[in-house]
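Chapter summary example.
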Amino acid sequence: MTDAKESMTQRRRAPMIASIAVAVFGVLAMLVVDHGPWSIPHLRTAMVNYGNTHAAAKAAGATVTPTVPKGPIEPKDAGPKRAQPVDQVAP
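The structure predicted for these 91 residues follows.
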C-alpha cells in the first residue's frame, strides 16, 4: 500500500519538478546572454537637450514653418441630432 502511494506522489510531482527545472534553466540562460563576458556596454553619444523643436531644427539646419491657426470651436446645435435619411430602394 505504501509503494502505491509513493509512486502516485512521484507521478504527481514529476511535471512540477520538470517545469521548475525549465524555468531555472531559462533564467540562467538569460543571465548568461545578457551579462556574459562578450556583452560589452554600448557607449552613448552626447545627448543635447534643446529647449524646443525650433531650436533642435535650427541646430540640424532645418527650417520650421508654423501651421495656420484654427478658429475657435463652434458650439453644437441645440436640440436632438438629426437622423440619417433612409436609403430609398428602387422597386
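To summarize the output: The first helix runs from residue 2 to 35.
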